[in-house]
TrEMBL record:
Family named by the database record: Belongs to the ABC transporter superfamily. ABCD family. Peroxisomal fatty acyl CoA transporter (TC 3.A.1.203) subfamily.
Gene3D superfamilies on file: ABC transporter type 1, transmembrane domain, P-loop containing nucleotide triphosphate hydrolases
A molecular function GO annotation: ATP hydrolysis activity
Name this polypeptide is given: Uncharacterized protein
One Pfam assignment: ABC_tran
Organism: Punica granatum (Pomegranate)
Amino acid sequence: MLKMQAQCLSITDSRSLCNHLVPVPLNLRFFCKLSSPASVATSSQPKPFCKGRWPNKFGISYNQRKRNSISLHLSAAAAVPPPAPPTTELDDEGKGPNPKRLWRRFWKVAAPYWWSDDRVQARLQLAAVFALTLGTTGISVGFSFLGRDFYNALANKDADQFAKQLLYYLGGFAGGIPFFVLRDYARETLSLRWRSWMTSYYMERYLKNRTFYKIQSQSIIDNPDQRIVDDLSSFTGTALSFSLTLFNAAVDLISFSNILYGIYPPLFVVLLVYSIGGTAISVFLGKDLVTLNFLQEKKEADFRYGLVRLRENAESIAFYGGEENELQLLLQRFNSAFENLTQLLISSRNLEFFTNGYRYLIQILPAAVVAPMYFSGKIEFGVINQSVSAFNHILGDFSLIVYQFQAISAFSAVIDRLGEFEDILDSSSKSPSESSEEISLVYSRMNDSPTLEPNGTVLKKKSQKLLDIENLTLQTPTSKATLITDLSLQVNCHEHLLVTGPSGSGKTSLLRALAGLWNTGRGKIQFYIDDVGVAQSSSELEETSMKFSKEVFFLPQRPYMNLGTLSRQLLYPSWAEDVAPALNNLEPPVTLPFLVRGLDSKDASRKPKQPTTDELIKVLEDVRLGYILSRFNGLDSTHEWSSVLSLGEQQRLAFARLLLSKPKLVLLDESTSALDEANEAHLYGLIRAAGITYISIGHRRTLYDYHCNCLHISAADSNTCRPNWSINPINEDTPVNLSKS
Ligand SMILES: Nc1ncnc2c1ncn2[C@@H]1O[C@H](COP(=O)(O)OP(=O)(O)OP(=O)(O)O)[C@@H](O)[C@H]1O
């Protein structure tokens, strides 16, 4: 009957329930099936935060989708305890774990949520989880006494008592199981909430101050995407499970130590010696696992990233016929992951030899120690069973490191990766140093900019100056190679500037500096924009740059096509998708407040009115792209736009964005390179007519027709500090007041 009951159950904690289901009198065949040595061993070895699938050698299956969910198939019990699952995760650059640094990083990553806006809800849920955990421990203790009386009745051949105890047992299951299920449900929900908050927190900082760009362009850390997706998920789940396991262990320790000590004090001493020795040996045997786990995570992420790049560049690779190269490269990456995993498995195997032996021995150790007392009649048979159960519980608590060594090593790797990420996000959000050796980027109000005529007497209309560059020396961020020396120029409204120069001379880099992406070098760049106060600090700069992006637009050579409909392509980046109304229609609400970003009312009032559908269609027609509406079923269709539109079409779409946003100034980096001359002339005509001032980079002669002045940058000479640029008017009729020097 017990067997039938147990087979019906799918429980979520290998430890608590198993311990009561299977108190093990080793000499009873019938119960040996239920409480085989393996089951006993397993019961005391919580696996609360392991990933992967356990080999089902002994009638316990592990549900990979629902972590920690274990189903018992007691009838199929075999004699081998489960090996700990293989773990993947990462750490160190070949160094061993450093507990102090690990703890500092753990705290830095874990703490912000519990002091965030969501702290009340978070703390309440955490309290509920701890209360339920306490409840489950209480139930475990109760089961230990039930088990004792149950086996006493059996040993005494007392049928009435046995039937009564059986009923108690069944009642205990009915009352106790909901606690175990609810505890796990509450823990998982809290973990998901925590993860959601952290995901939003990390993403915000990752996208702030262009940190994502710095990380990528300077190769600061590997695979930030994987840290946000996998590591955060793993961190929140594991941190919570691990804290609960520790709490559970502490409570268990107190509850069961009493029982065990009461039975036979020397048994307690045996337990201490056994568990401390076991911990020391497993730390010694598993010391390589942290590093191997760290590397494993990195190598798998590199392999996955290689596959993503293959997908993203499918057409170029297909044109080149580069399949063989790609295959070789991808296999190399996989091979590297494979070799590391092989090392990981070998280290795990060595550790497993020890931990399995450790688990086996405890099945007979407590019974062996108390058996003489039983033979001399000092204790009843049920007490042996109770001592085995209590011994297993306490040993499980004392042996957390032995049983969880691989999970702990994987967790350490996750902590280290997230801590490293956190440090970078932190340093990026701090104010830039006030070093004089940095380009300063300043935004000023347009009407604060008086401009003198060349003769110095006539004050022009204040709003004419758009950009002022003073003594700009630009260097590459990492190698600090000088690209442009001592550049000074001024751009006024409608004085379109063409930037030319040989390949690699630094034309795009100049735009990078203007956009604030690069700041290595010295000098000052000042923009004059409507409706903006002077901003010099990083936070002000961030806020100002949002407004700045509406006034100054940047068009790269290969336009970025986002994931979404055709209308979203046109509205990007000036108008973000408004998801709140759609979510409000859902019953019940399925999202958390911190996962919805909305503009505050102040910003919303500043937000320019979103163009209507007619305006979107018109602008497409203006850039001669009207035909794609019928080809792709209208504005609401979604496609992989960078694949289905030609580069020239994408460039025209980018001009459509520009015409909708109507900035004051646009920086064009070879933005018409894929277009025929007629289309190029047409687009320049459109933006000129829209009153937009532009600075273009380009090599084509035809571009001279649309610009007033030309800035020529020549290759920098490292042996001299002389300026490597010159400015000349292109057309005699245009104002000449570009260069201040
Ligand atoms: N992230 C980077 N880190 C270091 N150096 C870089 C980086 N990006 C570009 N460079 C270097 O800076 C120099 C100038 O590059 P830039 O892209 O500005 O050239 P360009 O004049 O626009 O060339 P082209 O006409 O070929 O587009 C090049 O030598 C390039 O190798």
